[in-house]
């Protein structure tokens, strides 16, 4: 049976359920406007480890293990762990996975990894290949800064368009049974390159990919923006969100009344000095696992379209003068 | 319908077909014993680009585009491109994908990426989510050396257990129709860490993961080693191959009569001074897309088990004194 709908979307007839989520954030994220929705707020962003990379891996491990516990399951019940992060060679994810007894599939989509993992996990479940799967991802401000930009010790200044990588990890357990929020459609994005090469303005680099995937989702499904209670992009931040809202008008869709961005929501930018807002895989992970999921559970939200967005750069590609391509994947969740 | 077989294996009832493959290798690989099986042998490993990273991306692009052509298809016929490579943030894959009109899902499993992409691609096809998908990966000796070890200009010596990263890219187009070699089972591996931390001996680091996945495949399916004409690990090289052959005896499986390793086959180690053999995502990609696939097409091989193996290290994890976990995924191909 072919489940394709339009060009880039598939329908998940079995409605894979998100049976639990768990989110862990750093102290700064815990001081932001969404603090009440996170499961754990760290007091120290090193989480008792001696490097930021180990700290990131430890919070991803915590998020995954706790999400399994919350679902009343154990490692052995999980058929696949789909996970990824921003660190070179997925260091956080692989070192988290090595202490778990779960088949592991590593993914990389930069900050789009939450919906990338969620979309693949949902398809694998719907296809009958698993009973329970996990989609998880993480990022860490301090490990990302020194890998992509400068060691923190340099005290570099940030451009007004620069974003603040979220310290956080989120994990979702998906299953086939139960009365939980469920996934109805996924729309997988294409890599879009509009020639942006300013590493301090990733919102601008990612916005065209977000617009492309969101409008393709509407075209494929025949839905319109008002179908959803909330359309939630991953981490475009203030700049990328503004571009997305305007640009998608040219495709004939007005999302201005029900559109938010995780990078915009997670911080109080003026008070917390986070410039254009949050970013990193962990940004949409913790907002989706925390704020969005808990509002779906409570019934405050019923239909949500999640679109995590990724800027596909490496420090090598930037140093070689290349542009920053973007990507975005959409997942429709309903309850 | 549940397609799970045993603990880590799934059965693909629709038998996803590998309808075309394409392989591109560098001059050194073209001088090796498998030269007749590769589709393109580069004269210059820069492939007219000005950096090795761009060269790697260009050969991956070539492999994907030519595999599509060989299948008499165009970009628009491909529902998903599953690809990954060794470069930080999957630079080769994302920059290859940005010039294609195909939804992209980036994967990272180090040198296990060929069977990781092939396994997910096969499940997505079997699940009814696509008509055609691509599994592809690449590596490049010169981009890998400078990223993971030392700039080539240093002229560093290599340990006898060190492997030589293959310059190569391979792409497979999978479809639902036609009389082609087809995929019957996939077995997804767990991350295995036996405490090896010698970056010059990745074969030893990966062997336990290979043994674990291969023996799990036999346990799950009830098959024995003699079911297959050939059991093919990804890039364990001479050292890892020897360990695998011995270690799997302890699980009660004797694979000594029908087992080869891509890293062992691709070079003439003594003549070509490649120490413990080939490695890199491109190694199993070009051997599987070239030697294995062409022998399946000709009927010389009928039942093959492919197991690409990955060493999950980053230069950061090594510098922080961490071990090198390994992973391996198996895909059974029959005709």
From TrEMBL, chains A, B:
Q: Which domain of life is it from?
A: Bacteria
Entry-linked NCBIfam families? PRK08304.1, spore_V_AD
Q: What is this protein called?
A: Stage V sporulation protein AD
Q: Name one Pfam family in it.
A: SpoVAD
The gene for this chain is: spoVAD
**Which InterPro entries does this chain map to?**
SpoVAD, SpoVAD_sf, Thiolase-like
